[in-house]
Amino acid sequence: MKISYNWLKEFIPIDLGPEALAERLTLSGAEVERVEKIGPLFTEVVVGRVVSAEPDEEKPAWSWCRVDIGGREVDTLCAAPNVRVNLLTAVMLPGGHMAGESRVVEVRNIGDRVSEAILCSEKELGLDDNDQGIMELSEEFIPGQPLSEALKLEDTILEIDLTPNRPDLMSHRGVARDIAALTGRRLKEEEVNLEETGSPIGEAAAVTILDYDLCPRYCARLIRGIKVARSPLWLRRRLILCGIKPVNNVVDATNYMLLELGHPLHAFDHSRLIGGEIIVRKAGPGEAIVTIDGDERKLDPSMLVIADRENPVAVAGVMGGLHTEIGDATSTVLLESAYFDPISIR
After folding, report:
1. Which residues contact 35 (CB under 8 A, 6 or more apart)?
2. Are residues 9 and 158 in the same domain?
3. Cα separation of 297 and 152, whole Å?
4. Is 192 among the domain residues?
5. pLDDT for res 316
6. Which residues contact 170 (CB under 8 A, 6 or more apart)?
7. Which residues form the domain of 334?
8. CATH of the domain at 218
9. CB atoms < 10 A from the CB of 287, how many?
10. Considering the domain boundaries, does residue 134 fall inside one?
11. Closest Cα partner for 346 from 216, 141, 167, 88?
């Protein structure tokens, strides 16, 4: 289980450094196998605001940009399609290098003009695989601020070897609870206030449990007006550091809550559930499902499935079905939170 030191500090004040904390956890029975320091793979990158962007005379698709980097402005030639005035982005200054490269940025003469910096994409900085344009940063950042500081890129990952009797440590909050017990510090409590709007869920969805032995509790919530997109960088980075590949903002939110609180969630595209129904039952003879990895799987009658009115749409507690997965066209999500018999889903 990979645990972020910075994430832990959102739950509890920690006076111990990462190495000392790892030792305390190990001595308490939660063995920390590895402590890995995480930092930026680039140098000399600051936050900058594009002040002006004018097409290059010879290459109209390219733009000469003037960028405010706090206290002074620099000129640079940029080919990114999303560059625009007032955009906050990542600016690499002379002497800096990109992720995985030793070549440093230099001031360059291009025609009769001088390019003094480079505007960078997430991929160039080793933050993600997105190379479709330069970074688009939040308005909360300040021109001239070091990017690693603005994005809080320095962290430490504690890799804990969990034993079967400690499922309570399979989340950041669970580990923070153990730290509270070890150090005497108080775990931060957060109130959750959820305002429900729209028509009652019973008018659009229904849940029926046919096997209470394997699923004693199944909760569903309907979320309307969803726009599927990329998650913000801070969230994607946390998932990546903990070993989970980002997918989209809906799926990433479910995985984020799994890492934070330890309880799995699953999101269905509500429009693809026949009749809007969720039926928790055992698989029927000869039934099969195509799971989100694209494989068709034959179901054993002893297996618990989540079905709509006609077909299985997920293998309960194991994997969702391809037909009801979240996609670009999804606008209404049925969110599952359930308890399944642990032995049945091992």
Report:
1. 18, 19, 22, 156, 157, 158, 159
2. yes
3. 42
4. no
5. 96
6. 1, 162, 262
7. 202-345
8. 3.50.40.10
9. 17
10. yes
11. 167
